[in-house]
Amino acid sequence: MSPSDAAARPAKPDRIFDREAEWADLVSFVGDPRPGATLGLVSGQRRQGKTLLLEAVAGASDGFYFDGHAAAEAETLHRLAERFGAYTRAARPPRWQRWEDAVDALLALGDQRPAAVIIDNFPDLVGPSPTLPSVIHGAYRRLRQGRRHNRARLILSGGTPSLMRRLFSGPSSLHQLASLELLVQPFDFRKAAEFWGIRSPRLAVQVHAVVGGTPAYRGDLVCDDAPTGPQDFDAWVCRTVLNPRVPLYWEARTLLEQENHADRALAHSALVAIAAGGSTPGAIAERIGAQLTDVSHVLAVLRNRGLLHAEPDAFRPALTRYRIAEPLLAFEHAVAWPHRAAMEQEDATDVWRRARATFDSAVAAPRFAQLCRDWATAHAGPDTFGGEPETAVRGAVSGPTGHPRLDVDVAVRGIVEGRPGVLLSVGLTRWNETMDTPHLERLRQTLSALGASGVDVSEAVPACYSGLGFGPELRAAEARGEVLLIDVDRLYHGE
Known about the structure:
Among the domains are: 3-183, Rossmann fold, CATH 3.40.50; 379-493, Trna Endonuclease, Chain: A, domain 1 (3-Layer(aba) Sandwich), CATH 3.40.1350. Strand 8 (388-397) and strand 9 form a beta hairpin. It is of the alpha/beta class. Helix 5 (99-107) crosses helix 7 (132-146), helix 10 packs across helix 19 and helix 14 packs across helix 17. The two termini are 29 Å apart. It has 22 helices and twelve strands.
């Protein structure tokens, strides 16, 4: 994009935090002057700001915006026609009886100029009208056959990427027509701290362990109530996520509403097991006393909905490990769910006092470990690991005979001199523990065990990640170049 092109495009409104890349993609798409109708697909989990972003794009480009709701087809067409009539300043709105008529009229807005036509919450419209994707596909086929000059810029938004793929699969796949597929994701942990106005890195980890990077959790669900400082965190938890009068208290369970009753019950149990430390299907099934086939099914459902991430073990690629993608779900199932009855009868402060240790061990510590993995691939400097990091995942190594398993919290692999998949680092994370030489010795044992099993560890550097800091002997080892040390300040501000 040339500087003149960038200057000609509408500026992002100040009320939208960050999202520069998403804004640039969207305004470039809707303002494309070239002939030919185009299609864009926008997806993402709930409450990531898709609607705010798309409303702003429509306003900045003088486009047409329609927010879909789950309703009977006739009602939706009537509401859409009224919105269309107001947009076109017609004397009276059209009377559409079929989606074919509505879609043709909407795309005709692009006959004279590049015209943004945005339909939000599109999956809600497909439920009552399952042929709607095929109707849109047919309309595009007719445009490309007879009105190649048309410059409609249709954007369909809503739902997770997997849901959008399912809606548009089949012989009339809209994915074949899409020239833009945009995923609106949560803010990364550094942006999330900036969004919440948090300067203390340790407090930022704690808040992220509750609400993650979902922007709506600050505005809509806690009414901009942010902790004033580290000393306010406990009180903030009690007055927000543990307060039934605040919407955030109810949010986690709505994320599972779409499952049928049996799946929903098993999903809760599986999430409780994962929050308690189970990461493999077998371990989860054993914890909840369910059949492995049933657990595998519900894990696949949760993964398809974007609520779980599945990753291969760092050293046993055939072993899949699961983690909860949405921090609020992890908080719910580790802290709130086991104390739900007590929260309805006791003061939140008393409940939180009993649950605080569980939060640190089962919520904050795993979240800190994940942020360390994210840092390794997204923020570490080019020379930090002596190569170009590509992945950072968990893993486990069999210790010497008679010794316990050796866990690795951050196994970094990447490219060294053109060679991909090189093991660059093995690391341990400790959220509430000052780390010192025993941790380095454990990492050395791990590297020795890996080497004995045939893994190339020649490029691997030990790394310690701590939420509280490091002892003097470990600092001395760092000075000698024997270990990498990453504290919360480096996590949020360093490379």
